[in-house]
């Protein structure tokens, strides 16, 4: 597919007109670290290596964690019969390390796919621990973009993980502690059920060049010309109930069929930063307040790249949201890239019934970049549907604190990092349908005479909906736009 056609389509859709002003940060970072084993920490970060890490040889640099307990090691070449306390005696399973650890401990994970106890396809986290992915097999180096640690269940896991999130976090008894997830990938693309990649079939919703057709709706059927994958279940990529601090950074969230992050904040300052979200259904990030009092729950959502968030169904009537401002949660949302939101990039339709408490809620939006969203902000409207707002209208919205810098994305180099077939399919998205309902048909006249409901059939066709995004290509989006969206920050 010609890049020129893609950029032309983008120009028509999102008014891209500014010239390229900066080289891609991705290319600059790659060239600067080529051949280097030791890496410099981002400005302001700390060296977390202490005496407990000397047994792995070279000192490995990574961001200082908020926990300082025992360090455990996990490697695909390890064994659960080991003690997990050194690179040479690493555990094999991440779940084993979590079960062994205590609150405040740190778990260091080498590259590979970790699918839980007995390969069930999920991880339970019920302690205040730090999980750091992205180490080389021998733990001599850490780079979460080169040494990818991830959880990618497959078709067989549709029978074993049920509605469990890939990371199911529940830590509510130590509000002064932290749960940290750093440098991990989450992908349901191999488990979800999709229409087969047949662009020639108008039932499959597969643009030319995409690796799958449209996703199966949860609880529904496909009615497509062939299928791939297993089954779509109501499980998030991360589901969390946390009282205290929760940190999620340097992660990839791809192909979630039921939220990427769905969480309840029981009180605490949370940080969700430097992540890539791509092709998730329902919402990319939804944090609800579990404490019905203002200013007890806070989320700092910054430097994330959120692309292609799809509505709940192919009818495209609700959800399809990148970030949701929820009741009883204060939020700062800044320096993010929001693109391809099926309904809206930001949503603020939830308000507490207690008007006093609701008025105390604090929200800030600043320096975000938007492109090709159905709306940049969704608000309630008098028609009981939605009011769709663009970024250039933010300063006109009452009770919505927006500072300077929110604008349409104009960097063409960033668009080049997106899978071209997926981007082109989104920009040319079409929805069509037919309705066979006839109130006065002979069958419906008969049914009405006998006290039965009248019937009809509605057929909805979409050119694209929730299609699988290539998981490893999502990592290309880190550093794609300097200073905004997900960066190299570890």
Describe the 3D structure.
- With 490 residues, the chain is mainly β.
- Helix content is 11%, strand content 27%.
- It has seven helices and 31 strands.
- The chain has a nine-stranded parallel sheet with strand order 1-2-5-8-13-16-19-22-25, with helices on one face. It has a nine-stranded parallel sheet with strand order 3-6-9-14-17-20-23-26-29, with no helix packed on it.
- Helix 3 links the parallel strand 1 (71-74) and strand 2.
- The model is unreliable at 1-59 (pLDDT under 50).
Mean residue pLDDT: 84
Q: Number of helical runs?
A: 7
Q: Looking at the structure, what is the overall shape?
A: globular
Biggest sheet record:
9 strands, parallel
Percentage of residues in DSSP E strands: 25-35%
Task: Give the end-to-end Cα distance, rounded to a whole number of Å.
Answer: 34 Å
Structural class: mainly beta
Widest sheet: strand ordering: 1-2-5-8-13-16-19-22-25
Radius of gyration: 23 Å
> Care to count the β-strands?
31
């Amino acid at each position: 597919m010609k890049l020129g056609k893609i950029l032309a389509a983008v120009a028509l859709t999102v008014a891209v007109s500014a010239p390229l002003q900066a080289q891609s940060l991705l290319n600059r970072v790659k060239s600067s670290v080529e051949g280097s084993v030791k890496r410099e920490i981002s400005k302001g970060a700390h060296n977390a290596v202490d005496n407990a890490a000397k047994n792995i040889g070279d000192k490995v640099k990574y961001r200082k964690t908020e926990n300082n307990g025992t360090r455990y090691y996990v490697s695909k070449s390890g064994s659960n019969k080991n003690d997990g306390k050194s690179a040479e005696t690493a555990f094999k399973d991440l779940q084993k390390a979590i079960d062994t650890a205590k609150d405040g401990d740190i778990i260091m994970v080498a590259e590979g796919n970790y699918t839980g106890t007995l390969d069930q396809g999920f991880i339970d986290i019920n302690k205040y621990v730090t999980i750091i992915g992205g180490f080389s097999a021998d733990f001599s180096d850490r780079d979460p973009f080169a040494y990818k640690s991830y959880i990618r269940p497959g078709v067989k896991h549709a029978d074993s993980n049920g509605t469990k999130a890939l990371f199911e976090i529940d830590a509510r008894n130590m509000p002064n502690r932290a749960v940290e997830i750093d440098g991990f990938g989450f992908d349901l693309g191999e488990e979800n059920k999709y229409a087969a990649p047949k662009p020639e079939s108008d039932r499959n919703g597969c643009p030319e060049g995409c690796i799958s057709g449209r996703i199966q709706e949860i609880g529904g059927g496909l009615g497509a010309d062939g299928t791939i994958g297993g089954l779509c279940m109501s499980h998030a990529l991360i589901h969390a109930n946390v009282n205290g601090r929760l940190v999620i950074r340097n992660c990839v969230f791809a192909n979630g069929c039921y939220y990427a992050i769905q969480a309840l904040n029981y009180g605490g300052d949370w940080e969700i930063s430097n992540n890539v979200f791509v092709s998730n259904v329902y919402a990319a990030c939804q944090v609800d307040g579990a404490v019905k009092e203002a200013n007890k729950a806070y989320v700092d959502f910054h430097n994330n790249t959120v692309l292609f968030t799809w509505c709940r169904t192919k009818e495209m009537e609700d959800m399809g949201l990148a970030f949701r401002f929820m009741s009883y949660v204060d939020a700062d949302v800044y320096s993010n890239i929001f693109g391809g939101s099926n309904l809206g990039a930001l949503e603020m339709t939830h308000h507490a019934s207690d008007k006093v408490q609701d008025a105390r809620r604090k929200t800030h939006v600043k320096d975000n970049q938007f492109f090709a969203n159905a709306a940049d902000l969704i608000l309630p409207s008098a028609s009981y549907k939605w009011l769709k707002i663009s970024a250039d209208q933010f300063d006109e919205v009452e009770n919505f604190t927006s500072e300077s810098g929110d604008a349409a994305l104009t960097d063409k180099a960033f668009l080049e990092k997106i899978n071209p077939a997926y981007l082109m399919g989104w920009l040319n998205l079409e929805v069509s349908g037919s309705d066979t309902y006839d109130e006065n048909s002979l069958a419906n006249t008969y049914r009405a005479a006998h006290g039965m409901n009248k019937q009809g059939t509605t057929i909805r066709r979409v050119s694209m909906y929730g299609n699988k995004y290539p998981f490893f290509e999502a990592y290309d989006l880190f550093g794609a736009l300097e200073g905004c969206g997900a960066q190299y920050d570890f």
